[in-house]
Amino acid sequence: MKNLLFILNILISFEIYSMKIDGVLDEAEWDEADSISEFYIVSPYTLEPAKNKTEVKIFTNEEGVYVGFINPQKPSTMGQYKHVRDEWNTKTDRNAFVVDFDGDGNTAYTFMLSLGDSMLDSTIRNGNDQSYDWNGDWIGATKINSDNWVSEIFIPWSIGNMLPITGKRKIKFGAFRYLAFNGELNGTAKTNAERDKYMYQLDEYEIDSFPAKSNINYFPYIVAAQDSVTNNEINKVGVEIFYNTGTGKQINATINPDFGQVESDDVVVNFSAEETLYGEKRAFFNENQTLFDISDRERLKVMHTRRIGSSPSYNCSESNNEELCNDSKQNYSDLDYALRYTQKEGGTEYGFFAANEQDEDFSIGRSYYAARIKKENNNKTLGYMVTYTDDPILDRTAIVNTLDYDNIVDEKLRISSILLHADAGDKSSLGLKSSFRYKPTKDESHSIGFHYYGDDLDINDMGYLQKNDWVSIGGRSSIDKYYDESSKFKNIEYSVRYGHQADTKGNSIENFINPKIEFRLWDTSSINFWTAIKSSGKNTTITRKYVDSPYIKRPSRYNMGASFDSKNYSNYAIGLKINFERGSRNKSWDSKGYEKNWMEAAYYFFPKDFLTMKIGFSLRDQKDWIRWINTNNLTAYDAVEKFLTFNLNYFKGNKHELRLKGQFVALEASNPTSLMSNEQGYLLLGDQEVSSFNVGEAAFQIRYKYEIAPLSDLYVVYNQGGSIYEEDINSNSASIIQDSWKNPSGKIFAIKLRLRF
User: How many CB atoms sit inside 10 A of residue 292's CB?
Assistant: First the structure.
């Protein structure tokens, strides 16, 4: 194996640069580099001159941009812990270089290097919208000295979609330093990622520019996987191609892409009418995708790439062999191809996307298309996107038109809107999301948001919408008070959320107000307290809009909670959360009253800088948990859910990474009561036979990753997952988890090799 990896290292073509990136700034070029040492405290956002001295050096040559940080600091206060790429570890000191190569506020890039050489990178759009899915082809190294530590970063010119420029290049940049021992962030630019004008407030800077070069990278891959439970084998070979013309144009294509066997989804037990949103794990669909990202937090994604390659559509009842059709169903679709093209001209960006699934024995592959245009001018962006999906099996097409607008008026005011129109099947509807954020001072913030998602709005053929038939108006106000180091408190934030929710017919779901106070200490610990009051209303989703009883009356309720996170600079940390929620009794059903208690506890252990562990446990205990069964049949339970997680990360140098991840859920639903709803939404005793039930979910993954070269990796992965659903069985949580582990739905051993040429 070692000989094979050595040969691959030789065969893989990658650039050999004139400068050695080793964390030692001893080359002559560093003596002539531009130097900046004026840093400010940007988190907490006091903007005072930084007390911790930092120097950053910058120079360019025909290869790219070189950045060096010199960080004076006592070794005893340095935090050095390795972490997986794009993970934010508060225990680790780090440097970051944020740069907009075109200086036009269109796209910026983050290159962050932790002490210990772990990397984080991201793209930034629309002021401060960051995407950590992007992995750039850059390198860096750190070194600890007797009275400081040094980081050295190299960014090749081919890394981004830059416009060609001759002579001097005017960029916007910010150099940042995070200190783990007090959680402070220092920067050359007087801003941070929480500010709406983050990328527009970066410092202007002039650097030498060199002729842009085209760059093409090939990523062939091979996957071999065996499921010992189903006896299914997966042997796939595919390739991804990324071509940067050096003139603002990029073409990305993939043939037979991998569905993502090297990552596992989080375990979720969901009995609600709202779909669980899972993240994208395939490399191709994460690279250069931010232009197509129009979203509203966890509520909305106009283009949700997890749909592409998901479970095929089947119509087994019309098949000549219905039994074989049902036996052949699978939870993913192979793709023939996917193609993405983006172009940048000044402040305008264009994009096109296409993907087609392969035909299966009892299914015809779906087709997906998207076109996007976005114009940026003076901190304003206006964009349009159309998506089209064709599902031949269901004889269904879906077209979604989206208009998005973002205006960062000044440092104080930001206005954003998304307007949707969807034609899906035989239904058509509108959606609108608008928000206003106002920050009159650096200590004060206010926001108001409005949402309208029509009754028939359906974008889920290619997108994701958490809930339609929903109207909401609400906001948040906060005051953040900062203190100097003579106080135990670094800052105290007072905030309140408030809002009104209803369906599109005017049925009030609830009104709520949610005050919160957060104490953050200089020792990096924090304590939070919150409460909430929620009015009575009508739950319009639990009944699935059954025609005779479209909703149930929701009782008023309130909650109180608190959380604590310990300091992060020792070799351990703990996190605790607890919440109590109470509600009034359902009037027409002789209930005892709504009650929900939950708590979470997490323990983090860092015995070595190359070894980290986390154990987490959560408990949810709920009375009068109401579950929809069918039509107008509902059931109330006493439900107890226990969730156990553990993670272990082991790093050997900068090449080897071993990860263990386990998630186990046990749900016990007891004391069932059959219910039904009348036309007024009141719950009445039903006459259905109902039973207690248990649900168990178990998932385990062990993953080894070897970095052959930058962006070239070997994965060896084992996944096991299982689940159970039991009725009228008196089991405890331990036996439920054991039974789900002993009843695996899959035991998959996979090897994946992905190379960059």
Answer: 23
How far, in Å, CA of 431 to CA of 415, rounded? 17
Angle at 264 between CA 259 and CA 268, to 5 degrees: 120
Dist CA 332 CA 261 (whole Å) = 11
CA distance 524 to 89: 13
Average pLDDT over residues 674-679: 91
In angstroms, how far is CA 321 from the centroid of its own chain?
A: 42
3-state class (DSSP) for residue 702? strand
What the block records as the tokens of 16 is 């050999």
Kindly provide the residue ranges of all beta strands, DSSP E only, lying in 162-228, ordered along the sequence.
168-179, 184-187, 203-208, 215-227
Backbone angles phi, psi at 173, to 5 degrees: -145, 160
Which backbone phi and psi does 337 adopt, to 5 degrees?
A: -160, 165
Q: How far apart are CA 354 and CA 341, in angstroms?
A: 9
d(CA 97, CA 155): 10
What's residue 260's pLDDT?
A: 60
- From the CB of residue 402, how many other CB atoms can be counted at a distance below 10 Å? 23
DSSP 8-state symbol, 636: E
Domain 14-208 has CATH 1.10.150.130: no
HSE-up (13 A, CA, CB side) for residue 108: 31
Give the whole-angstrom CA distance, residue 539 versus residue 192: 40
Burial of 562: CB neighbours in 10 Å, binned 0-12, 13-18, 19+: middle
- Dist. CA 714–CA 712, nearest whole Å: 7
C-alpha span between 218 and 339 (Å, rounded) = 14
- Which residues partner with 216 through β-bridges? 243
Backbone φ and ψ for 290, nearest 5 degrees, come out as -65, -25
CB-based burial, 727-747: b 16+ in 10 Å, e otherwise: eeeebebeebbbbbbeebeeb
Phi-psi region of 544 (alpha: psi -120 to 50; beta: other; left: phi over 0): left
Give the position of tokens 């703990």.
Answer: 574
Angle (CA) 184 414 163, round 5°? 80
Torsion of CA 724, 725, 728, 729, to 10 degrees: 10
Query: In the beta sheet, which residues pair with residue 372?
Result: 351, 385
Residue 176: strand, helix, or coil: strand
pLDDT, tens digit, 9 for 90 and up, residues 280-330: 878 788 777 888 989 988 899 999 998 998 888 888 888 788 888 888 888
State the Cα–Cα distance between residues 106 and 160, nearest whole angstrom. 12
Single out the residue of 36, 30, 35, 9 nearest to residue 18, CA to CA.
Answer: 30
How far is it, in rounded angstroms, from Cα 27 to Cα 577?
51
The vertex-285 CA angle with 243 and 310, nearest 5°, equals: 140
Say if CB 384 and CB 402 are below 8 A apart: yes
Burial state string for 545-560 with b = 16 or more CB within 10 A and e = fewer than 16: ebeebbbbbbbebebe
Q: Where are the domains of the chain?
A: 14-208, 541-757
Cβ(33)–Cβ(167) under 8 Å? no
Mean pLDDT, rounded, for 632-648:
94
**Whole-number Å distance between alpha carbons of 568 and 651:** 20
| More confident position, 133 or 571 | 571
Distance in angstroms (rounded) separating the CA atoms of residues 301 and 313: 21
In this structure, are residues 499 and 493 in contact, taking their beta carbons and an 8 Å threshold? no
Name the strand (E) or helix (H) holding 190: none
pLDDT of residue 6: 47
